[in-house]
Amino acid sequence: MHLFYVPFGFPLIVEHGKPCTGSEANFCMNGGTCFKILSVSTPTCVCSASYEGSRCEQFQLFSFLPNSEEKGMITAVVIIALLILVVLGVVIYYICNNSLSQEQDY
């Protein structure tokens, strides 16, 4: 399954597409891959990273769309970091509280 960026700005997921040939082979810009889809009259581009548009002509400086595996990894790292901070906070609290109790005993 491939994600194609069609001319009107809507992504279209299709299973079949033939690589462009002849003069259409250079239709896509910036390293995009050209495909012909029977239901679309113009060539369709699969853009390389950081580019979008019907011909991959628009550079996206801050385009970051993590896939589901990356989203899961990011979520796991954030949760683990938060848990470490909570545990560290509890340990510091008990150390401080314990040392205050020992000082008051003297």
TrEMBL record:
The chain crosses the membrane at residues 73-96. The keyword Kinase does not apply. Keywords: Disulfide bond, EGF-like domain, Membrane, Transmembrane, Transmembrane helix. The keyword Cytoplasm does not apply. Signal peptide: none annotated. Disulfide bonds join 28-45, 47-56. One of its GO terms (molecular function) is growth factor activity. Residues 16-57 form the EGF-like domain. PROSITE patterns: EGF_1 (PS00022), EGF_3 (PS50026). This is EGF-like domain-containing protein. It comes from Cyprinus carpio.
